[in-house]
Design goal:
The chain is built from nine helices and 13 strands. With about 325 residues, it is of the alpha/beta class. The protein folds into two domains: about 200 residues, NAD(P)-binding Rossmann-like Domain (Rossmann fold), CATH 3.40.50; about 80 residues, UDP-galactose 4-epimerase, domain 1 (Alpha-Beta Complex). It has a seven-stranded parallel β-sheet, with helices on both faces. Strands 7-10 form a two-stranded parallel ribbon. It has a two-stranded parallel sheet with strand order 8-13. α1 links the parallel β1 and β2. α1 packs across α6 and α5 runs parallel beside α7. Bound molecules: uridine-5'-diphosphate (UDP). Uridine-5'-diphosphate binds next to α5 and β8.
């Protein structure tokens, strides 16, 4: 199998590179390095199953030779990133998806779109099932990501229906694990770094809003199963164990033994109040469900952030 992964140097993309190399794939990793990092794939450089191309897929993509799969994972994905790079986010979700689909069509390859729970917006149905159309503010600051991904899903289905491209759509819920950036901006890496540095833990709003956190290895396993399936409609992949953001902060404080204080900051505009995936379809169609408990996942991720912060401090 020869597999192109756009965004392959990102947090999830790089875990996918590792997983598929283990499965024997030849990987062509394309990344603009806007939010991805060479460090995430440096261990693969020199491996003859792996090739890296620094390229922004919002521009035309050229890949020589046969391609069997195109996995489109390129996009800023943390709210603070897509607020900083709104136009790039819209472009990679629209033009980047168009070019990735065009590549899949030209090569007669399978195509998999990394979509998101953000297509549900601030949901009025709970937990979120794939047949829920969502509650998104198109003109709010988060609209740049949410609408780009909704457009990407529509474009994927159009290429499937009108060009017969063999497509898949995964709706990814909150995911965490090693290789998240220290400055990622999302709650979990922020809280871990703040706790380890003895800084205040910044909870936005009341902290009663909920999320459901899936460990990266579980997510990648679900994505692989979806790729091998024949399912063209969207499939949620995420961990249905839902907690409040305050509870997440308390669990991280307990795990680190940190004396950091929790402080409250304003809630960002359009921040979803609740989020939990209904994973019945993933269970039924893919035989998938998450296996890594939050306790184990948080412990492993904390180990990674300890090492990363130590080496950051050494380099200062
Ligand atoms: N959040 C927080 N403190 C932070 C970062 C985020 O309380 O330092 C909140 C954020 O407002 C949201 C939740 O944590 O309600 C999850 O946010 P995150 O950025 O991790 O991802 P999202 O699920 O919103 O995409």
């Amino acid at each position: 199998m020869r597999t192109v992964i756009t965004g392959g140097a990102g947090f999830i993309g790089s875990h996918l590179c590792d997983y598929l190399i283990e499965k024997g794939h030849q990987i062509i990793c394309i990344d603009s390095l806007l939010t991805g990092k060479v460090e995430n794939i440096s261990h693969l450089m020199g491996n003859d199953q792996f090739r890296f191309i620094k390229h922004n897929v919002s521009d035309y993509i050229y890949v020589d030779g046969r391609v069997d799969n195109v996995l489109h994972f390129a996009s800023p994905a943390s709210p603070s990133d897509y607020l900083e790079f709104p136009i790039q986010t819209l472009k990679v979700g629209s033009l980047g998806t168009l070019h990735s689909l065009g590549l899949a069509k030209a090569k007669k390859a399978r195509f998999l779109l990394a979509s998101t729970s953000e297509v549900y917006g601030d949901p009025q149905i709970h937990p979120q099932r794939e047949d829920y159309w969502g509650h998104v503010n198109p003109v709010g600051p988060r609209g740049v990501y949410d609408e780009a991904k909704r457009f990407a899903e529509a474009m994927t289905m159009a290429y499937h229906r009108y060009h017969g491209v063999d497509t898949r759509i995964v709706r990814i819920f909150n995911t965490y694990g090693p290789r998240m950036r220290v400055k990622d901006g999302r709650a979990l890496p922020n809280f871990m770094c703040q706790a380890l540095r003895g800084e205040d833990i910044t909870v936005f709003g009341s902290g009663l809003q909920t999320r459901s956190f899936c460990y990266a290895s579980d997510l990648v396993d679900g994505i692989y199963r979806l790729l091998l399936s024949n399912e063209h409609d969207p499939v949620n992949i995420g961990n249905p164990e839902e907690i409040t953001i305050c509870q997440l902060a308390r669990e991280i404080l307990a795990l680190t033994g940190s004396k950091s204080k929790i402080i409250f900051k304003p809630l960002p505009v359009d921040d979803p109040k609740i989020r939990q995936p209904d994973i019945s379809r993933a269970k039924m169609l893919l035989g998938w469900e998450p296996r890594v408990s939050r306790e184990e996942g948080l412990r492993k991720t904390l180990g990674y952030f300890k090492d990363t912060l130590t080496s950051c401090e050494k380099n200062v």
